[in-house]
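Shipment paperwork, digital attachment
Item: protein structure file
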Amino acid sequence: MKKQKITVIRPNGNSGNPRRQFLKMGGLAVAGAGLMMACSKDEMSQLPETQPKPIANDDDDMTPEENGIFDLGEGDLGVLNYAYALEQLEADFYTKVVNGFYANISEEERTVLTDLYNHEVNHREFFRAAITAAVEGNTDLVLPDLEFDYGDLDFGNRDQVLNIARTLEDTGVVAYNGAGKLLTNPLYLVLAGKIVSVEARHASAIRTLINPGSADFAGDDVVSVDNALDGALDPSQVLAAVAGLGYVKTAFTANFLP
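Attachment content:
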């Protein structure tokens, strides 16, 4: 298996979001009246009690690290850590967006971006809790808090912010779609399905902000004209794309994921 190494926001503050958070779409031409958070406290209480298989390396003792670099792991644990990494990135990005909105932002855009922030922080905290519970508190198996650096990205520039938001949301959709086949626990699959549906609504909302009144919310660059399905990519492909952004500064590997 080809080794994937990524140089990957330290979580910032609390979301303060309610159990159910809706994205008020206002006049946006996106199906549905709002976005409902994927995971409730009730669903978190239903997490499997069985511990996922520990990370194994045929050449070394079982360890979550190789040469001091954390590996996401294998099986369900690896997929959960993988999703947790992506949610950390999205949560950190939107934290920076809402902590310094670009100039002349409309109330509609402020509401949309604030709700996306609340969603992504909730997703991040859900995965942190879910993985910790699944490994029975063995934090050595939980992906650590990641560090991010956005370089010359100007958070005061509307076009730059929305274009990166579109990239992150589109990436999240293909990531969850591609990871679903790797999950063996049906509850994890159900929860991932709920989250990817929210990520797809995020992508549609951002695309509509960028080009209102167009068909971009479900453009043929993301939805296949042949089968009307969103794309799906393996973790190695997604991590390579994320690494290409240059925002993730904490190194980790994905040696046991395709």
